[in-house]
Amino acid sequence: MSQNEADALKRATTERGRCWWGGVALVVVGVMGLIGGTGFVLLKGADGDQATIAGVAAGMGFAFILLGGLAMWWGRPGRPIDLAASRDGARREKLQRERTRQLVLFPLVLLLFMAQAQMGMQRVLGGDHNAGAYVQILLPILYGWLIPVLVMGWDLHARRNRRLLEDELTQVMRAKSMILAFVVLMGGVTVALGLGLWRADYGVMALPYVLALGGASAGLRFAWLDREAGRDG
User: Which residues are CB-contacts of 186 (< 8 A; sequence separation ≥ 6)?
Assistant: First the structure.
C-alpha cells in the first residue's frame, strides 16, 4: 500500500468514526426529545403553550433519530472502505453532491415549518402570547437563515473541507445565488410594507414568508447552478 493510499484509508476511517459517533449523539438527543415531548403530552394533556412546545420537541426528536440513524448506518464499523472514493477528486464530488442535496431538502422542510408558523402568527396576532406560538414562528426563520449560511460555506462542515469545496466556479454560483436572494428579499419586503400600510397584521404575517423565500431562493438557485455545471462537465 502506497503512502497516498494509507493516508486515504486513515482519512476515511476517521470520517466514518466521526460520522458514527455524531449519529449516536443525534439519536440520543432525539430519543430524549421524543420521549420527553410525548410523555409530557400524554401525562399533562394536549392543551396550552407547554403542550405545543412538547409537540415541537417530539417532532424534532423524531427527525434527529432519523438523521442519526442514517449517519450511524453510513459510518457503521466494519463497512468496506473504497480507497478510490477516498481520493481528493472523488471526495470533492461527494461533498458537492451532499451540499446540493441539503440545499434542496432544507427548503422542503421549510415549507412544513411555515404551516406551523402560520398558525403561530394567527395566535400571536389574536392576542395569545404564549411561548409555543413564538417557537412555531421562530423555526422557519432559523431555517431561512441556515440556507444562506450553507450557500456561503460558513457552516462547520464546509469550513473543514474548504480545500475541496472552494473554487472559482463555486464563488460564481454563490454570487449568482445571493444576488437572486437579495432581489427576492427586497421585493418581498416591499410587498410586506405595502400590506402593512393597508393592514398592519397582514404586513407582519408576510415577513416570515419573505425571509423564508429569500433563503430558499438562494439554496435552490445554487443547487440548480451546481446541477447545470455538473451536466456541462
Answer: none
What one-letter code names the amino acid at 12? A
pTM of the model: 0.64
- With a cut of 80, say whether residue 47 has pLDDT above it: no
Cβ(33)–Cβ(67) below 8 Å: no
The model's pLDDT over 135-178, given as tens digits with 9 standing for 90+, comes to 777 877 887 888 888 888 887 777 777 777 777 888 888 899 99
Q: 104-119: per-residue pLDDT in tens?
A: 888 887 777 787 777 7
Instruction: Return d(Cα 83, Cα 12) in angstroms, integer.
Output: 8
Distance CA 22, CA 104 (A): 22
Q: Which of 168, 176, 155, 163 is nearest to 223 (CA)?
A: 176
- Whether residue 132 contacts residue 56, with contact meaning beta carbons closer than 8 Å, is answered with yes
Percentage of the chain exceeding pLDDT 70: 79
- For the beta carbon of residue 110, count every other beta carbon within 10 angstroms: 24
Residue by residue, DSSP assigns 31-100 as HHHHHHHHHHHHHH-S-SHHHHHHHHHHHHHHHHHHHHHHHHHHT-TT----TGGGSHHHHHHHHHHHHH
Residues 134, 139, 142, 147, Cα dihedral to 10°: -160
Per-residue exposure over 51-76, b if at least 16 CB sit within 10 Å of its own CB, e if not? bbbbbbbbbbbbebbeebeebbeebe
C-alpha distances out from residue 184 to 21, 99, 166, Å: 39, 22, 26
Match 449519529 to its residue by C-alpha cell: 23
